Amino acid sequence: MRKILTLFFVFALLFALPMGQYAEANQLKVGVVFSIGGLGDESFNDAAFRGATQARDDFGIQLDYVEPDDIAEMEDHQRAFVQEGYDLVIAIGFLQESGLEAVARDYPDAKLAIVDSDYLADMPNVASLVFKEHEGSFLAGYLAGSMTETGVVGFVGGMEVPVIFNFQTGYEQGVEYANPDATVLINYAGDFGDPGTGKELAVSQFERGADIIYHAAGGTGMGVFEAAEENNFYAIGVDSEQDGIAPGYILTSMLKRVDVAVYNIIADLVQGEFNAGVHRFGVADGGVGLTDFPYTDHLIPDEVKQNIEVIKEMIIDGQIEVSSAHD
Fold first, then answer.
1. Which strand (E) or helix (H) includes residue 315?
2. CA angle at residue 16 from 12 to 18, to 5 degrees?
3. 187: which strand partners?
4. Who's near 229: CB < 8 A, 6+ residues apart?
5. What is the largest CA-CA distance in the chain?
6. In the prediction, which pLDDT does 230 show?
7. Where are the domains of the chain?
8. In this structure, are residues 234 and 35 in contact, taking their beta carbons and an 8 Å threshold?
9. CB 78 within 8 A of CB 100
10. Beta-sheet strands, E only, within the chain
11. Dihedral angle at the C-alpha atoms of 48, 51, 53, 58, nearest 10 degrees?
12. How many CB atoms lie under 10 A from the CB of residue 8?
């Protein structure tokens, strides 16, 4: 009888208290290193955070993150997560590729992912989450080319780097497709977190005739929106749905579903199916596209909206080939 009672208490302890502790001990841990500017950009970093927090809520993972103040810090944060035994470390942004390369080589068993870079595509422990920004930007350009009344539109970029050139290139092609005679003004701020410069560039483009300005500039783009409100022209947002930041002044936003990419790579980890290599997202799989004009639907002719849907299918079918900056 004493043996039976002893066994009973052993099982009671196993199933009462330790079950929660056991689950916690075996809980998958994901660390995210954000790009410069951190959370609150209402764009790139915030999109990644939405995907990560949704995965946390859906799968019960432990999620931790850091917001570096400087590029030099990024590798240290990546390395710290790996050394602390995190099951997956996600680096948000191409600025982290050199640091992640060193970490990937030093820790070949670590599972790593990076958004916006395929530089490490050949490394067996790195998943590269990249987008066809040029395809989504083509749609934004078509809208701008169709809606401009002055025949002049603008583009404000953050830093002059390949991924932002993709936005610019696709936008220019879309504008030309809609309006071959239109002019596209191009300026770069040299920074993703400088709304003051973003505003100055947008005002300058407006003064040169631009009545619609598309930004691919992270937090710098907040200045573009401010300029649009103050000077009564239209802007186009990027990455996240930014339409509500300046309702009625932002025609649409070019959605770059960083949230979906981050969520999917965590889901793969949870299912034991983490795959290194390139994971590419475009118009065909909903990885890029436009918002549904929540504040400007009444401003956009039905014909333009219908044509956007037709163009999407033509891109998917290959009838329209949108060149990237790499091409």
1. helix 302-317
2. 105
3. 156
4. 246, 249
5. 94
6. 98
7. 28-131+259-281, 133-255+296-317
8. no
9. yes
10. 29-33, 62-66, 88-92, 112-115, 126-131, 152-157, 183-188, 212-216, 234-239, 250-256, 277-281, 288-290
11. -170
12. 10
* pLDDT under 70: residue ranges of the chain: 1-26
**Distance from C-alpha of 112 to C-alpha of 192, rounded to nearest angstrom:** 24
Into which CATH architecture does domain 28-131+259-281 fall? 3-Layer(aba) Sandwich (3.40)
DSSP reduced 3-state for 257: coil
10 Å CB burial of residue 142 (0-12, 13-18, 19+) is: buried
Tokens of 297: 């639907």
28-131+259-281 against 133-255+296-317: fold identical: yes
Spatial contact of 219 and 39, defined as CB atoms under 8 Å apart? no
In one-letter notation, the amino acid at residue 149 is E
Residue with tokens 């670590």: 110
User: Which CATH code fits 133-255+296-317?
Assistant: 3.40.50.2300
| Residue 78 one-letter amino acid | Q
Q: Quick one: tokens of 42?
A: 């209402």
Question: Residue 5's Cα: distance from chain center in Å?
Answer: 58
- For residue range 273-326, what is the model confidence (pLDDT) as tens digits? 999 999 999 999 999 999 999 999 999 999 999 999 999 999 999 999 999 988
CB 63 within 8 A of CB 237: no
- Which segments of 133-268 are extended strands (E)? 152-157, 183-188, 212-216, 234-239, 250-256
Cα distances from 113 to residues 48, 96, 227, 288, in angstroms, run: 12, 10, 36, 19
User: Please, how many CA atoms are within 13 Å of residue 78, restricted to the half-sphere of its CB?
Assistant: 30
For the chain, give the number of residues: 327
| pLDDT at residue 326, as a whole number | 82
Residue owning tokens 């209402």: 42
Structure tokens at 157: 């970029």
Q: What is the pLDDT of residue 18?
A: 32
DSSP 3-state assignment of 252?
strand
